[in-house]
Amino acid sequence: MQIAPSLLxxxxxxxxxxxxxxxxxxxxxxxxxxxxxxxxxSFGHELVAALRPLTELSFDVHxxxxxxxSYIPQFLQAGADDIxxxxxCSDSIQETLDAIHQGGVKAGLVLKPDTPVxxxxxxxxxxxxxxxxxxxxxxxxxxxMAGMMEKVRRIREHxxxxxxxxxxxxxxxxxxxxxxxxxDICVAGTAVFRAENPGEAIRMLQSY
Length: 208
Ligand code: DX5
Ligand code: ZN
Fold this sequence. Notes:
Layout: E1 2-5, H1 15-21, E2 27-33, H2 45-51, E3 58-64, H3 72-78, E4 82-86, H4 93-102, E5 106-111, E6 129-133, H5 149-158, E7 163-167, H6 175-181, E8 185-188, H7 190-193, H8 198-206
Parallel strand pairs: 1-8, 2-3, 3-4, 4-5, 5-6, 6-7, 7-8
Bound molecules: D-xylitol-5-phosphate and zinc ion.
């Protein structure tokens, strides 16, 4: 299993060190929240750019924005290696996918828990990744929704080669269900950054 620690659960008073503590991960997951699409505000592209020189990890940028399109250039410039945005956003999905791909990075669509999986079907040949939310987006530390594994199975059937990521409530108990359903990448915030030894937590989760 590939693991993407979510910086949202890190100690914000020493982010540079926190990033170095998860160097063994496969990606660094960066949750960008606008206080509108979700009821929380996190951090923006300037923080992402500031962290970029500190690590070789791939930057996996998850945009929880009502209007992601106009921010794509900033996140490309900040060093994103892939950008995912919500299928429920208010911008043109086509234009947003095009803007990400024109920047030469991977693009993915994210589904909130109540969004039907069929919403993805028209976009399957234009996306590199799908992110299935396993909590309501907005906050770390919530309970994993095991029912979302059915969505993962249906996506896996429809698009065998597509990268499937899940986000929210993944820990050493819930990751088994993710692995069984065919998930490629698990985001884990609390389970990694709040562990006594984040490196060990990552290795444990990667072994699934
Ligand atoms: C929720 C975020 C997640 C979250 C994961 O809106 O997208 O990335 O921080 O945190 P945990 O692993 O604590 O649920
Ligand atoms: Zn996320």
